[in-house]
TrEMBL record:
UniProt entry keywords in alphabetical sequence: Aminopeptidase, Hydrolase, Metal-binding, Metalloprotease, Protease, Zinc
Name of the protein in question: M18 family aminopeptidase
InterPro entries per record: Peptidase_M18, Peptidase_M18_dom2
Organism, as annotated: Thiogranum longum
One Gene Ontology biological process: proteolysis
Gene Ontology MF term list: aminopeptidase activity; metallopeptidase activity; zinc ion binding
Amino acid sequence: MDSNLNSSLLDFIQRSPTPFHATDNLRSPLLDAGFEELHEAERWQTVTGGRYFVTRNGSSLVAFTLGEQPPSEHGFRMAGAHTDSPCLHIKPQPVTVQQGYYQLGVEVYGGALLNPWFDRDLSIAGRVSYQDSSKKLGHVLVDFKQAVASIPSLAIHLDRDANKSRSINAQKHLPPILMQTDEEGSPPGFRKLLRDTVRKQHPRLDIEEVLEFELSLYDCQPPAQIGLNGDFLAAARLDNLLSCYIGLRALLDSDNSRSKLLVCNDHEEVGSTSACGADGPFLKSVLQRLCSDSESMARCIDRSWMVSVDNAHGIHPNYADKHDGNHGPLLNHGPVIKTNASQRYATNSETAALFRLLCERAGVPVQSFVVRSDMACGSTIGPVTASNIGVRTLDAGVPTFAMHSIRELAGSQDTEYLYKALKEFFVY
């Protein structure tokens, strides 16, 4: 297996604590590879053989190459992933002081496992909007990088049933502690603290006042390849930065004879309904600009295929009864085809058969996942994208443990399996 692929993936995750950072870190290798950045407000002049990308909201990205034939003749090979992960978002007016401790109010973003957020070294990152000395609006990314906060657990002596049943109230129990202060009545303003941090990180930036921000907490523990034989990748945000990065590498490393596209959307974890989410117009808008008219667009879509790449639930050895016995994917045994009769996944027999064929051609093992019939099924950008633009779609991804935890676990071999399968898909 390619150890460089895993090390570069983990480095990407470490540098991408928020969707804004992830999108920025997807831009850099595209620019290095000669892709031209397009802007939605400008007229596009694309050519056969060209390589391009465009971002929206600084948190979603579409990258594509134009092959030898027009999209209306051969369609696109499209892979989709998402840049966001469950986390704790900092509220607009976050500061409270309790018992002399300076704390921040937070709200839960997505379906997060909350228990693992306790007793972690936490930092803060995101996007800051500010005015400069000329009263002009600006935006900048910020990452505190060092541990600045913690959410301490209540000692078991004060909660004897903690190991039997523990209820977490998101309003009362999740505000992190940042420091101690004697200023009960007028504690230090968070925007001032934020402005000072931005000035330290960007000393040439003219920032007079922080106006607004989109910030979240993240775990400072770096990603790692672990296990006695290095079998596992342990990291935050494997769901779904793993798919974003592997999709990017497959896009860059496959030849340009066929038109291909990678879309990485924000807001999947909260339903995808936003201007830059999969249930918004971003991807469709890009495709419409690449097709000369509605006729060409319809022909392009009918000749296209989409793989929605999002992590799957690996069968957990301690909780095997949570799986259908015939559909329990194993880590390091290849990507997983995800199906659901209620269309929570977009896979059908046609798209699943194509993926099996591609995996066989690439020499990659492939697995299946169906949720237990007596359990609810999650979803992905797959059904949303399929219903919005009408493209044939498959849901697939690498098996993972502890999905939506602050630290997830995937197989170190599955990254290369997925890479090979997607690379084969982009040229099929």
